[in-house]
Amino acid sequence: MAGLKYYERTKLLIELIEKKKTGSPKELADKLGLQERMIYNILDDLRLALGREICYCKEKKSYFFLE
To answer: CATH number of the domain that 24 lies in?
Structure first.
């Protein structure tokens, strides 16, 4: 069951990154019901799994995929 929650949160995170609507790391953690540290861990996992760079824009307050 825990694996399903992780999958659903990761899928939602990818969608938010694609739409560039994640918010700040703290806001993102609140949206997903996680601690901020877990957000960084998931982002690191995504970088490895997807082979894509994920960056943060301070002006837009959102993560995005570097093209």
So the answer is: 1.10.10.10
Q: How far apart are CA 36 and CA 49, in angstroms?
A: 20
Helix (H) or strand (E) holding 62, with range, is strand 62-65
Single-letter residue type at 12 = L
Beta strands in 1-67 (DSSP E): 54-57, 62-65
Count how many domains the chain has. Answer: 1
- Taking only the tens place, the pLDDT of each residue in 30-64 is 998 899 999 999 999 999 999 999 999 999 999 99
Q: Which range of residues forms the domain containing residue 24?
A: 2-65
